[in-house]
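cron nightly-structures :: item 1 of 1
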Amino acid sequence: MAFAVHVNMERCTGCNNCVVACPVDALELYTVDPVSTDKIYKVINGSAVILDVKHELCAGCGVCVDACPYDVIQLSGQTPVAVSA
């Protein structure tokens, strides 16, 4: 994996902007109960605040970072290298 997504869950509000913005569906607000197949969200003040990052799908594009209005997502790893023709 060349990229890692770091989410500060202490400051995340569960607004879902990053999930909607991700072009490869690498982010999901997910169930707290892994035994259940139902989506059971942890809710604080009306917002789901558990965020699953599927690192194997992450392309390192940074769209989630730009979409987050609370600046809680950071992307680390290799910087994409521009290929010249």
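cron nightly-structures :: done
The helical segments are 17-21, 63-67.
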